[in-house]
Design a protein that fits this description.
- The structure is a homodimer.
- By secondary structure, the first copy, chain A, is an all-alpha fold.
- Chain A folds into 2 domains: 12-71, Orthogonal Bundle (Arc Repressor Mutant, subunit A); 83-177, no CATH class.
- Chain A is 68% helix and 0% strand.
- Chain A contains 9 helices and no strands.
- The first copy, chain A, has helices at residues 12-30, 38-45, 49-56, 59-71, 83-99, 101-111, 118-132, 142-159, 166-177.
- Chains A, B: Keywords: DNA-binding.
- Chains A, B: InterPro entries: Homeodomain-like_sf, HTH-type_TetR-like_transc_reg, HTH_TetR, Tet_transcr_reg_TetR-rel_C_sf.
- Chains A, B: It comes from Pseudomonas lini.
- Chains A, B: This is Regulatory protein, tetR family.
């Protein structure tokens, strides 16, 4: 969910984002997440609230973005040299991140946000980056990968006693890649 | 999520369940869902709160159970005469139900309940009923069906701009059944 696409590192836009993220992190250390507000964040970051609404839509998405940015400092999916390896590495990291407490909070934030679909857009972008590395290979669509790999990962975390087993995750990836 | 397993229709247990469900339905018509409490329901249904806690664990699960019982008066999955047909019929109905407003409320209730895994247990029971009708046929495990059919249905409702397309649902079922 890191909203890094299209931001030049060190550019004005990236600096604004970083100051807003830093403001959120600071406020979350001082007070309960339920009591943090957009105007508070704006004051702390030295921006107007509309800057925040324009970029994130609402507070839940911003909180989700900060949570993911914390977990994934490097946005580019790992390049292992094979499509199967890249998808496995990405999916294992995703499973780890989403199973964590910040990951669960993020999923709750995003669901109650005005733009829950944003999540799929970001995940889709990361998976597309992987697929684009292997132009010669037959491969599933990003939507199919999301349905067969991301969906069970998230579903099991939200609704199951235990998270998806890594063996089943690998098997689902193999099935998705063999279609 | 209808908790019907093991209840003799017309038995004492079924009558208690029905009176509790009826109490919830009545209270939901009179007041906001956020203000309904277990003691209120117990008084209305003429049972003790512990009867409710014992059977449902917490209020969220009871609300979820009532929501699903409302949507699915007949708990037995449709029997179309083929495994593929039964899974399709079940999955299409599930997609319809979960996309509705009561379905979304139910998913929220269950997530915030103390026993979110209960949901998978019930769904698994329904899918197992279908699989058991075709003992001779090679078929996926219930867990695989949940991962490939239920998970994307729920994930797309919670996190996508639009629900899963029926064509993709059918394709996922075909892939799951062909493994």
């Amino acid at each position: 969910m890191a909203i890094k696409e299209g931001l030049r590192p060190g550019g004005r836009s990236a600096r604004v984002q970083e100051s807003i993220h830093a403001a959120v992190r600071a406020l979350l250390e001082e007070q309960d997440r339920a009591s943090v507000t957009v105007p508070q964040i704006a004051v702390r970051a030295g921006v107007t609230p509309s800057t925040i609404y324009r970029r994130w839509g609402d507070l839940s998405v911003l909180l989700a973005d900060v949570a993911l940015a914390r977990m994934r400092p490097d946005g580019e999916p790992a390049n292992t040299g094979s499509l199967r390896g890249d998808v496995r590495a990405w999916a294992e990291q995703y499973l780890d991140e989403m199973s964590s407490e910040p990951g669960r909070n993020m999923m709750r934030d995003v669901q109650s946000s005005a733009t829950p679909g944003y999540c799929v857009t970001i995940i889709g972008g990361q998976l597309q980056t992987i697929l684009d590395r292997y132009p010669e290979q037959p491969k599933p669509s990003v939507d199919r990968l999301i349905n067969m790999v991301v969906a069970p990962t998230v579903f099991r975390i939200l609704f199951s006693v235990q998270a998806l087993e890594v063996e089943e995750l690998h098997r689902l990836i193999d099935i998705a890649l063999s279609q």
